[in-house]
Each structure stands twice: as structure tokens, then as C-alpha cells.
Design a protein that fits this description.
- Helix content is 47%, strand content 14%.
- A six-stranded mixed β-sheet has the order 1-2-3-4-6-5, with helices on one face. Strands 7-10 form a two-stranded antiparallel ribbon. A two-stranded antiparallel sheet has the order 8-9.
- It is an alpha+beta fold and 335 residues long.
- The chain is built from eleven helices and ten strands.
- It is globular and about 65 Å long.
């Protein structure tokens, strides 16, 4: 078998290759190539195996670090909703390997431009509405108060304490507590749907049809606006406010036409979007710091200023969010 020179030829990579060949009934010949496809912010990594004109993706998820079962279960929901998701062709849960259909080599993030963004986001909006239409209670874990609070705690625990090297004063803690109460209450007040939880251009593939949907294993049942925020307030690329507004309204129109429980008042939906966004932005600041200090992946920290800007865009002009504005001012977190 031929391998890419950059491929990490370690014991798990070898085992993943052996698993995939056996599952496909392929001999280990020069016609077969096995190379890294991608890695993500978790402990998972992916390889692409090619043979002649065919290709497959192999997920390597060390079982002591990652559980493949949610991926398998939610892949079924994605396909059941009529979306273009990966099919699980073979599994070895003891080793933490999955053989998946290959949705393509380019993410939306890699190819999106000012010129094609309307087309790509249009496809992403249509798929999101379709995913939300398939929602039903009791299938996915709830995006409940406890989970929302744990996510928010990532900001003081990892970004403030570990990255900034600071602890909240009593006054800052009071501002933070008031902010958390508001954001959690507003999130829990929204209609609930299936939430992908990382629905952004990096996890959407150029495929046939667009988009191929990946990285859904943390999906939950929760606030309707969450995935809309993820899509338009991206971790790795920012868009002008006017374009975000256009796409947000396009989603709202499509969701209403599909019978989804979006607020009938568009301004109420915008408010849900903004406050849900704050919860996500604060969480991501904590996650990106944790990925650096705990997992040794520093690249994500370079995108933390983007999330500070996202927060500032909302809190600097909103009296109800004055506690969070004061906290960011005190911590010298400026856009």
C-alpha cells in the first residue's frame, strides 16, 4: 500500500488501515492509498482510503477518549432527515474505528468567497430547515440548564483564569452570574429542535447534493436559534453585518414557510439569535483556550479576538447586557 509522506504512521494509523481494508475486502497493494484527511478539535482524526476511482473515510476515535456510538446514532438521524451525511459502512467500537462514505474533499470554509456565499449559505439554510423539521423530543440529549451552565463556565475557568491569569472579583462575579442567568433563561425560553451544535462552514462539505454534513456527534435537543448563530457567526470567518442580516432573514422566512416554531415577530427572533450567540461566543472563548492549554493545539487561540468582537457587537449597544459589558471592560476585552 502507498501512503502519503505526511501520514502519521503510528500504531493506531496502521490498525485503522488494517480495519478498513478488511471491511472493504481489499488487498494491501500499491493501488490502495491511505492518507490523513483531517483532524478536529477533539481527539478524533480522519484518514482517506482510496482505491482506483473510489474513496472512503476512516474515523479514528480512541475509545478511552471518544465514544463512537453517538456519531453512529446521529448519523442515522441526519440521513433519516434526508440530509447528505456520511453512511457508516463498518465499525469496530472496541478499537474506536468507523468506515464512512466519503462526502468530498473541500469544506464550505475552504471554498466560500464573497461571490459564492449566497449560493452556499442558501444550501446550508435549506438543509438546516430540513434538519429542524425532523425534530422530535426524547431522541437527543436535552440542551438543558445544566449543560448551558457548564458551557458558560468554560469562559471563567479557561479563558479568564487560565489564559488571562485572572480571577473574578466579587463585583465581576456578580456581573457574570447575572449574565448567565439571563442567557440561560432566554435559551430555555426558545422553541426546541434538533441542534447540530457546530453547524458552520468548516463542517459542511462541497458535495452532491450540497452540503455534506459532518461533525454532528454532539447534537442535542435545544434552542431553535443555536445552529443559525453557528452558521452566520463563524469561528473562522466573519461577514459584514448587512450580509448576516440578509441570511438571517432568509432563514427566518424559510423556517416560517416550513412550519417551524420560529417567533412570528422577526425582532424577537433577532433577540433570540443575539443572546443565544452570546452564550455560544463565551463558550467558544473557553473551549479555544482549553484546546490550547489542555490539548496542546494553539492554532485556535488566534481566532479568539473574533469572538470578543462578536460579543462586543451585541453588548456595547444593549442596556440589558450592561453587566457583561462591564465585565468585558474590566477585563480589557476589546474588539
Amino acid at each position: 500500500m502507498s501512503t502519503d509522506p505526511a501520514a502519521p504512521i503510528d500504531a493506531r494509523a496502521q490498525a485503522a488501515r488494517t480495519f478498513a481494508l478488511a471491511a472493504l475486502g481489499l488487498a494491501d497493494t500499491a493501488a490502495v492509498r491511505f492518507a490523513p484527511a483531517s483532524a478536529d478539535a477533539s481527539f478524533r482524526r480522519y484518514f482517506r482510503l482510496t482505491h482506483e476511482a473510489q474513496s472512503w473515510v476512516v474515523m479514528d476515535a480512541p475509545p478511552e477518549r471518544e465514544d463512537c456510538k453517538p456519531f453512529i446514532e446521529i448519523a442515522g438521524l441526519v440521513l433519516g432527515a434526508g440530509l447528505n451525511g456520511p453512511r457508516v459502512l463498518a465499525e469496530d467500537l472496541a478499537q474506536g474505528f468507523l468506515l464512512l462514505s466519503d462526502l468530498g474533499r473541500q469544506t464550505f470554509l475552504q471554498v466560500i468567497t464573497d461571490d459564492n456565499a449566497d449560493q452556499l449559505f442558501g444550501a446550508a439554510i435549506a438543509a438546516l430547515v430540513q434538519w429542524q423539521q425532523a425534530s422530535r423530543a426524547g431522541v437527543l440529549p436535552p440542551y438543558d440548564e445544566a449543560l448551558l451552565a457548564r458551557e458558560l463556565a468554560l469562559f471563567p475557568d479557561w479563558y479568564v483564569a487560565r489564559h488571562l491569569g485572572r480571577s473574578f472579583t466579587a463585583e465581576q462575579q456578580a456581573w457574570w452570574d447575572e449574565t448567565c442567568q439571563l442567557l440561560i433563561a432566554r435559551a430555555l425560553g426558545q422553541a426546541r429542535v434538533f441542534v447540530h451544535r457546530d453547524y458552520m462552514p468548516r463542517n459542511l462539505m462541497r458535495s452532491d447534493p450540497d452540503p455534506g454534513v459532518l461533525d454532528f456527534q454532539d447534537a442535542v435537543y435545544g434552542p431553535l436559534s443555536y445552529d443559525v448563530v453557528s452558521l452566520f457567526k463563524d469561528a473562522f470567518r466573519s461577514w459584514p453585518a448587512a450580509r448576516v442580516e440578509g441570511w438571517r432573514r432568509q432563514y427566518w422566512d424559510a423556517a416560517r414557510a416550513a412550519g417551524l416554531p420560529v417567533p412570528g415577530d422577526y425582532s424577537r427572533f433577532v433577540r433570540d439569535f443575539d443572546l443565544m450567540g452570546l452564550q455560544r461566543h463565551l463558550k467558544v472563548l473557553g473551549i479555544f483556550a482549553r484546546i490550547n492549554y489542555r490539548d496542546g493545539k494553539p492554532a485556535y487561540l488566534a481566532d479568539t479576538p473574533r469572538f470578543i468582537r462578536y460579543v462586543r457587537e451585541v453588548v456595547d449597544h444593549d442596556a440589558e447586557l450592561l453587566p457583561l459589558k462591564k465585565l468585558f471592560d474590566d477585563l480589557s476585552l476589546q474588539a
